[in-house]
Amino acid sequence: MQGTQETTSPSAAYTRTDRTVPTRSPDRAAYDKELVHAILDQAYVCHLGFVRDGAPVVLPTLYGRVGERLYVHGSTGSRPLRMTGQAGPGLPVCLTVTHVDALVLARSAFHHSINYRSVVVHGVAHDVTDPEEKRLALDALVDHVVPGRSRDSRPANRKELAATAVIRLDLDEVSAKFRTGGVDDEPEDLALPHWAGVVPLRKGYGTPVPAADLAPGTELPDYLTMP
Amino acid sequence: MQGTQETTSPSAAYTRTDRTVPTRSPDRAAYDKELVHAILDQAYVCHLGFVRDGAPVVLPTLYGRVGERLYVHGSTGSRPLRMTGQAGPGLPVCLTVTHVDALVLARSAFHHSINYRSVVVHGVAHDVTDPEEKRLALDALVDHVVPGRSRDSRPANRKELAATAVIRLDLDEVSAKFRTGGVDDEPEDLALPHWAGVVPLRKGYGTPVPAADLAPGTELPDYLTMP
After folding, report:
1. By residue range, what is the domain housing residue A86?
2. Does A2 fall in a domain?
3. Residue A103, min C-alpha distance to chain B (Å)
4. pLDDT tens-digit series, residues A58-93
5. Could you tell me the CA-to-CA distances from A68 to A33, A72, A171, B166, B222 in Å, in that order?
């Protein structure tokens, strides 16, 4: 998972708004664009929230990033994608990405936690109608799963492009939130006999399983041998 | 992560509703309670969606399960938990849990996919006010992170219980969705020279890092040596 070439300056940050400043633990919130991009680029799925008939709906979906734009795709018949309308007012969404990095085990039940990194994006999603933007978005979606993969696969043809709806969400109202570090137990609990500490969660590729009907002589590409 | 002792019969299933039957790929949807429970019990965080000022909000959060009830906790000052009200009408929510199990690399960009398992729960969340239910919920939240851990930590005291809000969401309108298996390429693409197959994603514990101030002689518990 990767982004495209960056033109963001290191000091660039998203502007805080009422809904991106948390009421609790504001010290765990961040608005730095590089940090936000890194969190977005390292996850496989986002959770896309929207409102239908007055009730919230949250669906997991693949996504891709091109600079300050996120793209989500799906069948032209799927419900959220039908709701964005054709050049209409768009669909208010909240797109959230979360990594669980470690379990934090405290002596007290109360101070159990996890180390995590998350990004929450608020905004209005719009249909992508420009064919060139749609192609770039679909490349970004494939490259998000495996960096560089779009150049090592057959691009979508006219029929596939027509069957695929793509929606865009600009990175504008954005915040990151995270927890790092160790255990925060109360001083009076330190002598308790319970093990306390941090349990990292391992991540990485397992052994790739080639398709049974792979063309003879097709080697495993280098980009799949990374950890 | 585990559930409590099950009394669900193997054939038990959630009743389908308009919003739990997908418009696309209905063959990938399931309503079996055992399958739903397994997906719920194996994840660390859920994504909780609700509506605020007419717009969707999706936040990652820890959760626990006791039979057919899910529990989410947080500070009594946090926004979603304030919105459930005290014995009021409750907060309409959508709670979604997703596992990404493998990357599916096809010869064509269009057929790239992931193998995943997800559960979507629709319902109305209510404050838990009964002290005994609240204690059981908090145990479930800790045991969800590490099975059995609630019996190996100091339980919440009166002050901690008062600072913690717990909300309940009944498992009633529920569906699972998943993709398993291999690559679905078009017949005319099979001879293309692109590697195709499934790349599993590894999961498990890394090496636990004990707290620097751990009481002398505190051994790493057996439940942290599992894969």
Report:
1. 26-183
2. no
3. 7
4. 999 999 999 999 999 987 766 666 666 555 689 999
5. 9, 14, 5, 37, 46
